Amino acid sequence: MIEKTITSIENKVSDAKSIDEKDRIELLKLLGELKTEVTELSKTHAENAESITGFAKVSAHEAIREKKNPQLMNLSLKGLSSSVDEIESSHPQLVAVVNKISQILANMGI
Questions:
Q1: Residue pair 56/34 in contact by the 8 Å Cβ criterion
Q2: pTM to 2 decimals?
Q3: Residue 34: which of 58, 78, 2 has the closest Cα?
Q4: Can you tell me the distance from the alpha carbon of 56 to that of 90, in angstroms, rounded to the nearest whole number?
Q5: What is the pLDDT of residue 17?
Q6: Of the candidates 79, 94, 84, the residue with the CA atom closest to the CA atom of residue 36
Q7: Over its length of 110 residues, how does the chain's per-residue pLDDT go in tens digits?
Q8: Integer CA distances (angstroms), 45 to 22, 27, 62, in order
Q9: CA 39 to CA 86: how far, in whole Å?
Q10: In contact, 63 and 55? CB cutoff 8 Å
Q11: Considering only CA atoms, which of 51, 41, 46 is closest in space to residue 80?
Q12: What is the C-alpha separation between 85 and 29, in angstroms, rounded?
């Protein structure tokens, strides 16, 4: 389920016309890292992994929409950031990836 969701996000990012090429390349790279990190996390913390994946999907959706809604974008990014709060000490690489994704998406949503 997690890998399928992230693959779906990757496909949407690849096809989105509202993303410049530099951001697209960086996001796809980070989504690959996210897939690896979240898959590993799911072995011990399945619910956390599902939350992170779900918020990543919603955040990406909000960022690549043609008609942006800043309030929804902010809410989705807060959810994404909050989804990694509990695992910051045990999975610092995953938190770093999520933070980078959040920053790129936030910049796109402006």
A1: yes
A2: 0.90
A3: 2
A4: 20
A5: 87
A6: 94
A7: 889 999 999 999 999 988 899 999 999 999 999 999 999 999 999 999 999 999 999 999 998 888 889 999 999 999 999 999 989 899 999 999 999 999 998 888 65
A8: 33, 24, 26
A9: 17
A10: no
A11: 51
A12: 23
Smallest CA-to-CA distance from 100 within 14, 26, 38 is with: 26
Length of the chain: 110
Write down the residue that tokens 């939350």 correspond to. Answer: 51
Q: 38 near 94, Cβ under 8 Å?
A: yes
Place of tokens 């990406």: 60
Would you list the DSSP string of 25-60? HHHHHHHHHHHHHHHHHHTT-HHHHHHHHHHHHHHH
Which are the contacts of 12, defined by CB distance < 8 A and separation ≥ 6? 60, 61, 64
**Using CA atoms, how far apart are residues 34 and 52, in angstroms rounded to an integer?**
9
Cα 102 to the chain's mean position, in Å?
7
Number of other CB atoms surrounding residue 107 within 10 Å:
10
